[in-house]
Specification:
This protein is an alpha+beta fold. It contains four helices and seven strands, in the order βααβββαβαββ. Helix 1 packs across helix 2. It comes from Ramlibacter agri.
């Protein structure tokens, strides 16, 4: 029996989810997110369910891990991919099945949504531990690279603005 419970996040979880995002960005990419920006983003996601949702794992009254899900319509499949993002598990709870349980719960939720055709996520190229975890759950790398262009003037990192 797992030592934790799984549930959808609520507004009461906003601060811990923002802290998880700050820790994850620093641990995996050495980036320092702006607390006010990430806090507002987490609260927005929680307040606007059409954007997506968070799942959390809770143990001993404390949230110990979580992930965010957003959707992408695939016209090729006439279905939605659920994008798994903002994955974080507190260090003391790693290697204890937290992410595996969150992923399995997400799979159960997807069975109730007939147009969900699969899951996707992106991972840092150098994050071998995360990649091994995802592969162990049946996920595979794709032939696609991720590209982005941020709008000029956007500020999301400490000390850095996107230049136009």
């Amino acid at each position: 029996m797992p030592e934790f419970t799984l549930r959808r996040a609520t507004a009461a979880d906003a601060d811990v989810l923002a802290a998880f995002n700050i820790a994850m960005a620093h641990e995996t990419e050495g980036k320092r997110l702006l607390p006010a920006v990430i806090g507002a983003g987490v609260r927005r996601m929680l307040a606007e369910p059409a954007l997506g949702f968070y799942l959390v794992a809770q143990a001993q009254g404390e949230v110990v891990g979580g992930l965010m899900v957003t959707t992408e319509l695939s016209d090729w499949r006439n279905g939605r991919f659920w994008w798994i993002q903002s994955v974080y598990v507190q260090p003391a709870w790693r290697r204890r099945g937290v992410f595996r349980a969150l992923y399995a719960h997400l799979g159960e939720l997807a069975t109730r949504e007939p147009d969900v055709c699969g899951f996707r996520l992106y991972v840092e190229r150098e994050n071998a531990n995360a990649q091994a975890t995802y592969r162990s759950l049946g996920m595979e790398g794709t032939d696609y690279l991720l590209f982005e262009q941020l709008k000029a003037g956007v500020v999301y990192l400490e000390g850095q603005a996107v230049k136009g």
